[in-house]
Amino acid sequence: MNEIFVIGGGPGGVKLAQELRAIGFEGKIVLIEENLLGGECTNVGCIPSKTLYNFSKICYKIKKLTGKSFSFDTKLIVNTIRRVINMIRKGIELNLKNAEVEVINARAVIQGDKIFFNSSSYNFDCVAICTGSIPVTLGYKHDRILTNRELWGQMLEDFINALSKGAKVLIVGGGYIGLETACMFSNLFDGSQFIVVEKEKNILNTADDEIIQEIHKSITKNSPNINILTNCSVKDIQYGPNSLIVEYDISGEIFKDEFDFVLFSIGRKPNIPIQDLNKIEVNEFLEVKGMRNVWAIGDVIGGKLLAHKAEFQAKIASRNIIDKLQGKESRHRYTKTNELQIPSVMFTIPEVGWYGLTEKELKNMQVDFVSKKANIASNPRAIVDNSREGFVKILYNNRGEILGVHMIAENVSEIISVPMVYNSETIVYPHPTISEIFGELL
Ligand SMILES: Cc1cc2nc3c(=O)[nH]c(=O)nc-3n(C[C@H](O)[C@H](O)[C@H](O)COP(=O)(O)OP(=O)(O)OC[C@H]3O[C@@H](n4cnc5c(N)ncnc54)[C@H](O)[C@@H]3O)c2cc1C
Hints:
Blueprint: E1 3-7, H1 11-22, E2 28-33, H2 39-44, H3 46-66, H4 74-98, E3 101-105, E4 109-111, E5 114-117, E6 120-123, E7 127-129, E8 133-135, E9 145-146, H5 148-152, H6 156-165, E10 168-172, H7 176-188, E11 193-197, H8 209-222, E12 226-229, E13 232-239, E14 244-250, E15 253-259, E16 261-264, E17 268-270, E18 294-296, H9 307-325, H10 336-341, E19 344-346, E20 351-356, H11 359-364, E21 370-375, H12 380-384, E22 391-396, E23 402-409, H13 418-421, H14 437-441
Parallel strand pairs: 1-2, 1-7, 2-3, 7-18, 9-16, 10-11, 10-16, 11-12
Antiparallel strand pairs: 4-5, 5-6, 8-17, 13-14, 14-15, 19-20, 20-23, 21-22, 22-23
The structure holds flavin-adenine dinucleotide.
């Protein structure tokens, strides 16, 4: 095997190509990307949204300290987002160049034992599918009905300008993307209104129940211009001359309301580049079932749809590819335990982070556990930062092993992985930091 094809240049594909080189593959690595390097994460996901989050947090903090609204020039926001995306994409291009990865701008499709791109077909020894996922909509098409792709892409400027004048936005889906989006924009534009509708009985429904309650309470308190409606699903959207008229069902009752924009964040479906296949299944070595020498990682194989999961799987798959290349059995596994160890993070105010199992899951599994919880309110850093909402909860089994960590407080996205590596006898937490709370619980 002296040539490896990587399809997709998002976090998964880029990391996989780099890892292959880093662990000693000397042959040709060809990365085929149909759109922009960086994928969903860099161009229309993690990076633009967290750049906006930075602006949003500043507004929130100033308003909390002074009681007065603060706003940024909309051009500054849009230009900063574009600049940050470009900077990160340039870094990716440079890293791939340094790793001597050949990048081809084309759409690739696998048919049988051949890969097709740029109107040619090639036999392959090894392919890694890293093609990500596509946002799900309910089939509505209108220039003010958006997914993350339009929002952070061609519509960003129009959307932000409309919000700066006061707009009414419906966000369909109360998962982490819908909630982050609502919080960020609502803090920046407090003259606009945001309704988040969630069809389940709770927002963020895979999180621990106490986290769900706390974040629901915090969002409602910190952002009076967000209204969260649960047990609520969209029935119909009509296109009026100046607005979108939405009919929704709240616990069996039908309501109608008018909006300037509707944002869909109701889930994603895999973006599969294999002819006549609509689901990719992999074994624990991340090799596609029923195919020879085809691996798949990241959003395209489902599970947690997060950039750091795609990158973690890239490390595992690259090693298995090299094992195969050297005629060895694949040795590196991605298991259910690994999936549980992938931290989920949500960049709301306050932030949420968790990994492992929730109390409800442990009860359903009839596992005995102990829950230790500490509130953030008395943490010195939280007091300094005037940000005392939240708590940290750690669930242990009777051998003292951690089964789940659930955090809600400012900046917890930075420290959620700490309990995975802690050694209680030697670890010292710097003062004053939120991480000191682990000293009480671990
Ligand atoms: C609004 C939003 C915010 C998010 N925020 C976060 C966050 O804060 N933290 C986090 O961890 N995750 C976040 N995510 C999720 C994260 O973006 C994804 O989990 C991550 O991008 C998945 O990486 P991937 O490499 O599997 O796929 P992608 O990033 O989707 O990359 C796949 C690439 O493959 C290309 N491609 C697809 N098909 C073909 C083909 N046939 N031929 C050639 N190229 C092809 C695509 O153009 C794309 O560039 C966010 C997502 C969204 C939508």
